[in-house]
Each structure stands twice: as structure tokens, then as C-alpha cells.
User: Which sequence fits this backbone?
């Protein structure tokens, strides 16, 4: 049974699929979380993605308007966006049936590294949205405390300040993980853009490497592919990766304690591993 919220975007759905009415659409649930519900809707050979986002997910329409569309980033085409009092409803092009999470091949991870280079090649006239003040705020909102919090607020802040002076801010997807990388067999596309922002770090490459290592791939070739595709100095990439790791992990921890524990109850189990990762990254920060 299709969800009732599809009635609000029936017009764009029917126009895109050429179905005579919603009752003729075949629906497949792709995700159903407290803050995000995603469906593939098809009629014959035509299919689209319908998405309802709330809480942290409501910013996706704004991310499309501000970053994805004007910079022509490798994302699904936005067919329609409708904002309500508590959610955003999106109709998006269907860009493929297979994610990198489903088929975690070495070739897929290398292609994803090239996608990051493509996104970061687009200059944008906007200041960084991950500043030393933002880092301090995330530390205070996260479960990090004691020596870890102190080191983040001293060494971490200093290194971020240096990085901002060294390299311009570029678009960061913010959740560049295997499940958000989809292929149609010919090209790869990045889906789910609500966390997109502008920053000088490489949290996207950090999360890609994190997923690659988890399924048995080596970091080195993926980093090398990014360096080759982007033309970035290898030492700068290492500094961007370190700050990117801190940025991703702190954002993840803040989300878990402020929202995740209510919308994804299993996320409580992520806190200890995330804190361990954050400790490792921060301890090795030079």
C-alpha cells in the first residue's frame, strides 16, 4: 500500500511516470526511517524516486537549489520539490538499481573517489560552513569529554584554522557512504544531499575509505585515485582527511545524541565506536 503523503505530489509523479493514477503505480520501499522515507515508484518501464524527509532531512530541497543544481553536481535530477510545515517531499530521477553497499567492488570505490574530485572541482563563492567555531560547538554537543575534548578544542581547532588558510572551501556531500552511491551500470551518481555544505576538509573521502576498509579494500589505491583525479598535493590531502574525519565523526555523534536516539534507536550502539574512531584520529593529528 502506498503512503498517504504521495497524494501531495501526485501531479509530478503521474507526469513523470505517465501512469493514469496513483493506484496504477508499483511501489517499492527503499528506506523507512523516522526522518526519511524513500520509495521507488514505477509504471511500465518508467520509474522515479519519491522521498519524504523530516528533521535533519528537510534541508535537501535547499541543498539542491543552492549547490546541486547551479553547480551541476552528479546527483539525481530534481523533478519536483514541495515543502510542508514539517517535511520536504521530493520527486527525483531514478538513477539505478545497485548501490556500492550492495556491490562493494574495488572499481566502484575508485569511481567514487573520482566523483569526490568532480564535486570538489567546482569553485563556489561561499565561505566555509565548518569553521573553528563550528568545531568547538560540535565538541560541546557531542559525548566527547576530558582529554579528547581538550585536544579537539586546541590542536583540532588550530589545524582547521591552518587548513582554511591553505585551501578554499568546496562542496562536501556530508554523508558520502556506500549506500548513497548508486549505479545504472554505466555511471555512478551520488544520492541523498540534505547534509551538503561548504568546507575545506575531505570528510567525503574519509567516509569512503572507512567503508572500503570495512569490506576488505586497501586505502592506498583509493587515495591515490583521488589525488590523481583532483591534482591535489598528497600532503594537503592527508591534512584534509584528518580534519574531515574529525568533522564527520563529531557531526555523527551530535546527530546520534540529539536526534538518532529518537528516530533510529539502534544508533545508541554507534556512540562508543565513533568515540574510539575520534580518539584515534585526534591522537594522530600532527
Assistant:
Amino acid at each position: 500500500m502506498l503512503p498517504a503523503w504521495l497524494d501531495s505530489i501526485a501531479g509530478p509523479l503521474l507526469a513523470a511516470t505517465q501512469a493514469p493514477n496513483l493506484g496504477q503505480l508499483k511501489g517499492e520501499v527503499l528506506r523507512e526511517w523516522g526522518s526519511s522515507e524513500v520509495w521507488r515508484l514505477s509504471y511500465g518501464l518508467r520509474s522515479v524516486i519519491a522521498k519524504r524527509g523530516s528533521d535533519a532531512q528537510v534541508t535537501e530541497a535547499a541543498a539542491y537549489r543552492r549547490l546541486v543544481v547551479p553547480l551541476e553536481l552528479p546527483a539525481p535530477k530534481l523533478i519536483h520539490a514541495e515543502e510542508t510545515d514539517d517535511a520536504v517531499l521530493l520527486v527525483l530521477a531514478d538513477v539505478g538499481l545497485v548501490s556500492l553497499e550492495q556491490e562493494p567492488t574495488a572499481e566502484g570505490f575508485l569511481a567514487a573517489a573520482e566523483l569526490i574530485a568532480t564535486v570538489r572541482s567546482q569553485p563556489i563563492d561561499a565561505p566555509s560552513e565548518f569553521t573553528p567555531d563550528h568545531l568547538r560547538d560540535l565538541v560541546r554537543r557531542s559525548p566527547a569529554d576530558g582529554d579528547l575534548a581538550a585536544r579537539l578544542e586546541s590542536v583540532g581547532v588550530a589545524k582547521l584554522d591552518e587548513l582554511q588558510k591553505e585551501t578554499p572551501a568546496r562542496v562536501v556531500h556530508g554523508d558520502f557512504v556506500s549506500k548513497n552511491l548508486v549505479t545504472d551500470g554505466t555511471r555512478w551518481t551520488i544520492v541523498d544531499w540534505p547534509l551538503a555544505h561548504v568546507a575545506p576538509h575531505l570528510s567525503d573521502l574519509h567516509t569512503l575509505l572507512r567503508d572500503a576498509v570495512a569490506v576488505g579494500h586497501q586505502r592506498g589505491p583509493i587515495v591515490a585515485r583521488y589525488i590523481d583525479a583532483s591534482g591535489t598535493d598528497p600532503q594537503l590531502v592527508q591534512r584534509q582527511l584528518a580534519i574531515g574525519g574529525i568533522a564527520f565523526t563529531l557531526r555523527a555523534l551530535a546527530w546520534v545524541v540529539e536526534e538518532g536516539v529518537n528516530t533510529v534507536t539502534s544508533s545508541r550502539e554507534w556512540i562508543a565506536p565513533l568515540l574510539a574512531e575520534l580518539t584515534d584520529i585526534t591522537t594522530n593529528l600532527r
Q: What stands out?
A: The domain at 4-94 is CATH 3.30.200.20 (Phosphorylase Kinase; domain 1). The two ends are 54 Å apart (CA to CA). Residues 113 and 226 are 5 Å apart (CA to CA).
